[in-house]
Amino acid sequence: MSSELGIRVFHNTSENHCDFDSSLIITLVPPYILVISVLGIIFNVYVLMVFCLHKKACNVAEIYLSNLAGADLVLVCCLPFWAEYARKRYDWPFSESLCKVSSAVIYMNAFCSIYFLVLVSIDRYVALVHPLSHERIRRPFYAKLGCLFVWGLGLVFALPIFIYRKLEFNSQSNLTGCELDFNEHQYVAYEVITIIFSFIIPIIIISFCTVRIFQSLSNRLMEGLNTKKMEQKATTLILAVLLAFLICWVPFHVTKILDVLRYTRILKCNITRTIVQQVSVYFAFFNSVLNPILYVIAGKNFRRRAKELSKQWNNKTTETFSLMSTRMTTLRLTKSQAAL
């Protein structure tokens, strides 16, 4: 039985795989995933609190980023189950329902994350390249509709994972695996569709928007025109998040393409490529922790929101303590008067 956590999360294992000593992966993966989960939960909850609890409504870019934080949060909440799975040497200790739900949720939120970045890229493109002619579509209402569409699309693409994922007992190893019940042709067809819709199409859109954004900013600098500071700040943050996504997820998708070519026997089994595939999966999960850090480092508007929210809470806390102190003082005076 394969010990490849990434493959188990995202696709089926079969007889056509490369066997290698996975003891090091089994040792390192559980603590690594748990650290990613804890940090991802703390950081993304903080981001959602800043975006959602601030008295000022979110703009279009912030709506997309808050949904991205939500997708990252749900993803990292499901990872501890797979950390335990790896710790038990890939003997699934939970129910079949949890096997289905956790793997489908991981897939769904990984899919949604890239399309929230696509929406973010389109928003920056419209804001900087077509600031006047497309101002009407850059409204929070349309941004929320776009987010609902992405969540729905992610749910549709995760349905096969939920339907075909099941527990399979291996009598030779005496282990129960959480596996996708795909034959080889189904697996190849599903992975090709996934690669097209979750990698190739989004990368084309993001690359086009990013190139046009850089061209627009360069032209404005050459012409001596100043972009609005708010747009510059938002664009800096978006580009940082996009770069982090590409660094974390492109290796994963490239190895998936190579894996499909191996299953179709275009490429031969290669142990090095298999190990790189494992590393790329775990590196991709780190993106859910990296995004909130980038909001703080590159997001001046986010830091401003966080400071204002902190002041807002401090004021409320001060008012609460003041009110409690006043009530306690009044109560003491009342008791003193009653005693007299």
TrEMBL record:
Gene3D superfamilies: Rhodopsin 7-helix transmembrane proteins (1.20.1070.10). It is a multi-pass membrane protein. The keyword Cell membrane applies. It is found in: Cell membrane. PROSITE patterns: G_PROTEIN_RECEP_F1_1, G_PROTEIN_RECEP_F1_2. InterPro entries: Brdyknn_rcpt, CCR1-9-like, GPCR_Rhodpsn, GPCR_Rhodpsn_7TM. The keyword Glycoprotein applies. GO terms for cellular component: external side of plasma membrane. Belongs to the G-protein coupled receptor 1 family. This is Bradykinin receptor B2. It comes from Oreochromis niloticus (Nile tilapia).
